[in-house]
Amino acid sequence: MTATGFLSQLLQLAIALLLAPLLVGWVNQCRAWLANKSAPSLFLPYRTIRKLFHKDAVVAENASPIFRLTPYIVFAAMALAAAIVPSLATDLPFAHAADAIALVGLFALARVFIALAAMDIGTAFGTMGARREMFVGFLAEPALLMVLFTASLLSGSTSLPTIVETLAHRELAIYPSLAFAGVAFTMVSLAENARIPIDNPATHLELTMIHEAMTLEYSARHLALIEWASALKLFNYSCIGLALFLPFGIAQGSFDWLAVLGATPVLIAKLAVGGFALALIETLSAKMRIFRAPEFLGTAFLLAVLAMLVNLLLGS
Amino acid sequence: MAATPLWAQLINLLAAVLLLLAFAMLAQRRVLTLINLFASQGLALASSTAIVAFATGQRHLYWSAGLTLILKVALLPWLLHRLIRKLDVRWDVEGLINIPMTMLIGIVLVVFAFNLALPISQLANTVTRATLGIAMASVMLSFLMMITRRKAIPQVIGFLSMENGLFFAATSATYGMPMVVELGIALDVLVGMLILGVFFFQIREQFDSLDLKHLEQLREEE
Question: Are A156 and A244 in contact (CB under 8 A)?
């Protein structure tokens, strides 16, 4: 492990942690604009997290240690994922620890723990949310894996930095497989980040919620960590999408201050456009019935598999 | 693969779009959207034929592209739309199997078709041979659509889109069939469509429905 690689690793992690709530704030602001409402402040997620950290935590009497541990595990999993996904540079020492498949495993670990914690208290909402989360998760995961396999087939490696370097250096050509995989990935990210066609991130105490139902029992610092972790999750998914489908502007090769400093504004610009696109999708679509979710995610899986097959057949 | 010319990339892209449209038709619930999807499949087919014609200098392919454009993008969808208006059937299509299941079967069929096409496409010497697998896959998907749909009109659309797939297979494997054959097929499809249109009215008159399961009752009295 080189010292410079370590530096770029730390810098990327710090930027991910700092920027994640900003991305959520930006998406919320865009959503408000598109719905013709006055927008909340861009920095509202930061204030919410700070406020929650200053409160006293209330934990249910019958909560087991799993319930207390979960926020830390979920946050750690998301932070580790942020360290693996090449968003600024490809010279990441941590990235050797886990490839694309292990990354999906990290997301699964967070999901399992948050579902366990939701069922731990034994409230009706928590159990319902956990069941629905697993229901969405088991459909979304294979599709995500297929998308990552498509990118791996194109670049001949499952390690994310290698994928990004190969894809960024390819010749400009039309890749039908990448287009299919991109659409599939968008659908999966919408489902995984509790976004509108599957779940509505703006609701509390409604029978249709999934993610919010699981975190109802959390308060104060636990809730802050969970909120921060879900912001990081959105950030991670955006960065995976950008790394796979728009890998231009990421600093490659060994560490170089100028390259990393140049990559930061590019990343912020790409995230701003991506966040606006997300808000646009959410504004334009209506929430589905939960039993339509298999069809939605089945389509995502189908597209991802088609991407892989087309890639195998046409070599592009 | 890095040095493939632009037209080859475009053909590959259109082939992928054809496959996608075949799946979209398989999953579609509404008849009107189904017809529009069929029209766009025809459009993709016509453009890919035109690109092949441009790239290889085969003049007669321009004619088939034009024929496809007139027949499958304009005439047949118009006929279908008119038929639906006259029959006043805008119901949602009911499949025999639910849609996610149909799509999974579709994926299996695509894998099968790709495997089947691999040795054949190695024998062909056309520039478009790689797309043969996609052509066979869309033929099979149309077959599947005909099998899983209960009502008459989606089955006919499945039949028409199967012809699209066959046409694409011919273009990708041998740069199209002789003009006489193509004209013959085009006329056959058109006449077939007209006759089936008459059939629809007869079926509805007889059974008050276009559900083909009623046809099973057409037995002689014992």
Answer: no
Q: What's the mean pLDDT in A105-125? A: 88
Give φ, ψ of B191 to 5 degrees.
-65, -40
Strand partners of residue B46: none
* Cβ contacts of A163 within 8 Å, gap of 6 or more: A100, A151, A152, A154, A155, A157, A243, A244
Number of structural domains chain A divides into: 1
Tens of pLDDT, residues A44-94: 889 888 988 898 888 888 888 888 889 999 999 998 888 888 877 777 777
pLDDT of residue A73: 92
* β-bridge partners, B211: B151
Residue with tokens 């100028």: A258
> Would the CB atoms of B10 and A316 count as touching at under 8 Å?
no
The Cα A144–Cα A132 span in angstroms is 18
**pTM to 2 decimals?**
0.83
Residue B216 DSSP symbol: G
Q: Considering only CB atoms, which residues of chain A are within 8 Å of chain B?
A: 170-171, 173-174, 176-177, 179-180, 294-295, 298-299, 302-303, 305-306, 309-310, 312-316
Q: Tens digits of per-residue pLDDT, A242-259?
A: 888 877 777 776 666 777
Whether B41 contacts B156, CB under 8 Å: no
Q: Look up the ipTM and state it.
A: 0.74
As beta bridge partners, residue A251 has: A89
Report the distance separating Cα A225 and Cα A28, nearest Å. 19
Inform me whether the pLDDT recorded for A204 exceeds 80.
no
